[in-house]
Specification:
heterodimer; A: 95 residues; alpha+beta; four-stranded antiparallel sheet; B: globular; hydrolase activity (chain B); AB_hydrolase_fold (chain B)
Chain lengths: 95, 245
């Protein structure tokens, strides 16, 4: 099915696309047909910077298990680092 | 038999007079030929869709596929364009109708045109093919597993994919529907609902439903491809357009 559903949020960081690194400003997460992964549906994540055009995009297409493993791995990595180390919030920086 | 085909990127006038990119393929003979507007699937105006356009030309139709994501992502790779269109909230129905109208006008303007134009769409394009047939002067339409013609979208779906059941009464020409019985959107009950409404409104239609096939069974580059269903479906499509265009 085409789910049409899209979770979109603003973010800060960088990604490496076809033309090298660029600043990221938003991301989309959606469950729908992949472009490349050999499955009928995948969890698709696009890291984007629309102000730099549609090609400023880093895309991944993951199975459900892989997406959930990614979430766990991110949480584990953050938990293992000093709190707030990668945060942009001023209060956290001090920690 | 002379069978040369010309395939090329062209520009057509879409919704609001916007000049949009489109892929055209047409026989090089004098005609007259019927026209087919190909409506690409949600993953975009991609190489397999252009192959479909050329296939219609090889079968004796002038065909054109408007790039529905032209505005969001002119010149971008099809996957990047699809992502940009999704980020912008998708293709509004009104704009789709205007873009198909422009594509149909392009086909009718060809010297080889017989004046008749049909549409075919896959996936989200199936729903859009139905919408075009209910909105424009078209002689036939094919809906390949379009979700949300009937059925209720789950909560949170954007407005532009609202169901179109109330538009059945507006259909201008016969509808050919091709569906996989393992599909969830549209599910067999969704297809039943559409079929009942077509019957109730006395509309000409022809539905075929395939076992062991789900969504996107025509998509040759995806694991959903089902050769048996797709080959039979193609035969049905050419017979249908042969009768009506």
């Amino acid at each position: 099915m085409c789910t049409y559903l899209t979770e979109k949020f603003a973010l800060e960081g960088s990604g490496k696309g076809a033309q090298g690194y660029f600043a990221l400003t938003e991301a989309m997460v959606y469950v729908d047909h992949p472009q490349h992964a050999p499955y009928e549906h995948t969890v698709n994540i696009d890291f984007l910077n629309p102000s730099q055009g549609p090609s400023s995009r880093v895309a991944v297409e993951l199975t459900e298990e892989s997406a959930l493993a990614l979430i766990d791995a991110i949480r584990s990595a953050l938990a293992a680092a000093p709190p707030g180390l990668t945060s942009t919030a001023p209060a956290s920086k001090a920690a | 038999m002379y069978d040369a085909v010309l395939a090329e990127t062209v520009t057509v006038s879409g919704h609001g007079g916007d000049r949009i990119e489109a892929y055209s393929a047409r026989p090089m003979a004098a005609g007259p030929f019927g026209g087919v507007v190909v409506i690409h699937h949600m993953p975009g105006y991609d190489a397999p869709t252009k192959e479909i356009v050329r296939r219609f030309a090889a079968e004796g139709y002038a065909a054109v596929c408007p790039n529905l994501y032209s505005r969001e992502a002119p010149g971008a790779a099809p996957d990047d364009a699809a992502a940009a269109a999704r980020a912008a909230g998708g293709v509004p129905d009104e704009r789709l109708v205007g873009d198909v109208a422009g594509a149909a006008e392009y086909l009718r303007g060809l010297p080889s045109s017989n004046g008749k134009v049909g549409t075919i769409g896959y996936c989200s394009g199936g729903r859009q093919s139905f919408l075009a047939l209910a909105s424009l002067d078209l002689q036939a339409g094919v809906d390949c597993y379009g979700a949300f013609v009937t059925g209720t979208p789950p909560e949170g779906f954007p407005l532009q994919v609202s169901p179109l059941k109330d538009r059945v009464r507006d259909l201008r020409g016969p509808l050919l529907g091709l569906f996989g019985n393992d599909d969830q959107y549209p599910s067999p009950p969704h297809v039943d609902e559409l079929e009942e409404e077509l019957k109730a409104r006395g509309k000409a239609y022809e539905f075929h439903r395939y076992d062991d096939a789900g969504h996107a069974f025509f998509a040759v580059d995806r694991p959903s491809y089902r050769p048996q269903a797709a080959m039979d479906g193609w035969q049905k499509i050419f017979r249908f357009f042969g009768e009506h265009l």
